[in-house]
């Protein structure tokens, strides 16, 4: 299919509009004026419209010409970005990069790292999305993510580069308004089980889902993120273990009360991982930055 509007025609129209005349535009694009005249006249003939009003030495866009150029500028920009991405890919920079962030990981440090990456001025489209429990491993396994951060549980064998980024402490917490807030002594399971518990649901799609910190309770209320779990427990909707770094601000403000339980939850190592067969420059850069961040202070 023949397209009347070409990139070359758009570049010439842009030059004429900016310089105000065919002669000045020709000089800026290193062509003779007759070449610009031929290109514009051919486009006008193909579209059956007048693109420029010629007033002596000056050339001004007509309404159809303004429409063609205003819409065409986006096409020119996309073409330039495509060319840059191709050159970038040849030098080892990916065009897209996807980060699966577990819900236990705070978003602000990660966004600061993304901000630092943007200062490199590389045309890499960054995606950051949230997973829970086995969802981060699942995102790597299915190819939905290039890097998983905040991963926990049993480590897959062989196919990933894995490094520990910290260790997560837990606290059993209830709201100031919860019936257990004023309980004196160690909470036994039979007491805790009389109240609803708040649980983060596993976001795995392909791999088997898993549970974390479950215990017998009157009712389980499943939410999709740690932020939602924190809010539910702050409201007094239920009880549950929370990562200490997540709960600490609410504990310090007195909105949550830490309670001793008969079976406390042990601390847990937390990892980041990436596929061994992916070695792009963005992957290398992010691996270095993510590994050096202090995630749990």
Molecular structure report:
39% of the residues lie in helices and 22% in strands. The chain is built from ten helices and twelve strands. Strand 1 (52-55) and strand 2 form a beta hairpin. Helix 1 (7-19) packs across helix 2, helix 1 packs across helix 3 (33-47) and helix 1 packs across helix 4. The longest helix is centred in the first third of the chain and has 28 residues, at 63-90. The chain is elongated.
Low-confidence stretches: none
**Overall average residue pLDDT:** 88
Distance between the termini: 60 Å
Helical proportion, percent range = 25-40%
Major beta sheet summary:
5 strands, mixed
Element pattern in H and E: HHHEEHEHEHEEEHEEHEHEEH
Q: Radius of gyration, Cα only, in angstroms? A: 29 Å
Count of alpha and pi helical runs: 10
Q: How would you sum up the global shape?
A: elongated
Number of strands: 12
Q: Please list the strands of the largest sheet in the order they lie side by side.
A: 4-3-5-12-6
The fraction of residues assigned to DSSP E strands is: 15-25%
The helix/strand class is: alpha/beta
Keywords:
39% helix, 22% strand, elongated
What is this structure, in a nutshell?
This protein has helices spanning 7-19, 22-28, 33-47, 63-90, 107-118, 135-142, 189-192, 226-234, 244-252, 281-292, and strands spanning 52-55, 58-61, 96-102, 125-131, 147-151, 160-168, 170-175, 197-200, 220-223, 240-243, 256-259, 268-275.
